[in-house]
Design a protein that fits this description.
CATH architecture of the largest domain: 2-Layer Sandwich
CATH topology of the largest domain: Alpha-Beta Plaits
Strand content: 5-15%
Order of helices and strands: HHHEHHEEHEH
Strand order of the largest sheet: 2-3-1-4
Number of strands: 4
Structural class: alpha+beta
Largest sheet: 4 strands, antiparallel
Helix content: 55-70%
Shape: elongated
Number of domains: 2
Number of helices: 7
CATH class of the largest domain: Alpha Beta
Length: 245
Amino acid sequence: MIAVPASDILTDVRNKVVLVMFCGVLAILLAAMLGMVVLGRVADDVEQLSTVVGGAAGRGIQTLYSQVRRRDEIGTLARSFRKMHRELLTDRLTGVASRAALEHALNRLQQQRRKSGQPFALLFIDLNRFKPLNDRFGHETGDRALTEVAGNMQTMLRDHDLLARWGGDEFVILLPDVADHDTALRVCQRVQRAIAQPLACCEGYQLGAAIGIALFPEDGRDAATLLQAADQAMYADKSLAMGER
């Protein structure tokens, strides 16, 4: 029999216990760091997915289409929603904003300005002489004419203005920084010149337009009232032009 001091035996045991505990704590820390990295990546893509689904609007619809890095189910779902959102907010024919995009932006803007009272302008545009163009050149050429006219109008606007196709040959322009009728009228004149440019797709055919102006909050404090006021002003402009002829 060999007698060994208890302190020697316990020292070795304590060292091994400390080593095991240290390795365990290190493993927990590494697992936590790895989990945070994975969670951060998932959270970024889920946030992008939430942004697309929620339809957040910044300075136009293009800001919604950031890249999704993931290649798994979450990434596929995010890209699908992004594509759906783009199609919803873009007019398929002309490439400008859709009616849904305009209504969303208009509702958002009027809610913001209702608190501050800061005005903005809305233009309702109806093309003149578009039906004769369709009758003469056909509907396919008419579609190309709408696309060309929309592009011409877009060049006359600033980045934060929103041009949307309302339907048929009608367009609406949202002017967030236009605060009075005179400024809105000057924008109308620029838009009229853009619309009147000879169309390359129609042998130089020229269109015209009747344009109605509505100001927030002078002509309405909600989207529906503003659109109605701009529409009525457009019909008044059209009737005036017909009366002058």
